[in-house]
C-alpha cells in the first residue's frame, strides 16, 4: 500500500468514528433509561457474582 492509501484509510476511519460519535450524541435522550438500573447498581448483583466465602471474609469471620 502506498502512503496515500494508508492516509486515506486512516482519514476514513477517523471520519467514521467521529461521525458515529456525533450521531450518538445528537440522538441521545437523557430522560430515557436503558437497562435495569435506576441510577445505581443494585447490591444483589454483586452478591450473586461473589463466591460464598467472600461474604464471610467481608464480615471478618476469617480474620
Number of strands: 0
Low-confidence sequence ranges: none
- State the helicity in percent bands: 55-70%
State the end-to-end distance. Answer: 62 Å
SSE pattern: HHH
- In one word, what is the shape? elongated
Tally of helical runs: 3
Structural class: mainly alpha
- Mean pLDDT, as a whole number? 77
CA-based gyration radius = 23 Å
The amount of beta strand, in percent, is under 5%
Largest sheet: none
Keywords: Membrane, Transmembrane, Transmembrane helix
Transmembrane segments: 7-26
In words, what does this structure look like?
The chain crosses the membrane at residues 7-26. Keywords: Membrane, Transmembrane, Transmembrane helix. The structure is a single chain. The protein is mainly α and 63 residues long. It has a domain at 1-28. Helices cover 60% and strands 0% of the residues. The protein has three helices and no strands. The chain has helices at residues 3-26, 43-49, 52-58. The longest helix has 24 residues, at 3-26.
Write a compact overview of the structure shown:
With about 60 residues, the protein is an all-alpha fold. The chain is built from 3 helices and no strands. The termini are far apart.
Keywords:
elongated; 0% strand; mainly alpha; 63 residues; 3 helices
Layout of helices and strands:
Blueprint: H1 3-26, H2 43-49, H3 52-58
Keywords: Membrane, Transmembrane, Transmembrane helix
Amino acid at each position: 500500500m502506498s502512503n496515500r492509501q494508508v492516509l486515506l484509510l486512516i482519514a476514513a476511519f477517523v471520519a467514521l468514528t467521529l461521525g458515529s460519535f456525533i450521531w450518538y450524541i445528537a440522538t441521545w435522550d437523557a430522560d430515557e433509561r436503558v437497562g435495569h438500573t435506576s441510577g445505581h447498581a443494585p447490591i444483589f448483583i454483586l452478591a450473586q457474582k461473589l463466591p460464598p466465602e467472600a461474604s464471610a471474609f467481608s464480615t471478618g469471620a476469617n480474620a
